Amino acid sequence: NAGVTQTPKFRILKIGQSMTLQCAQDMNHNYMYWYRQDPGMGLKLIYYSVGAGITDKGEVPNGYNVSRSTTEDFPLRLELAAPSQTSVYFCASSLSPGQGARENIQYFGAGTRLSVL
Amino acid sequence: AQKITQTQPGMFVQEKEAVTLDCTYDTSDPSYGLFWYKQPSSGEMIFLIYQGSYDQQNATEGRYSLNFQKARKSANLVISASQLGDSAMYFCAMRPGISGYSTLTFGKGTMLLVSP
Question: What is the percent of chain A with per-residue pLDDT over 70, rounded to a whole number?
Answer without folding.
Answer: 96
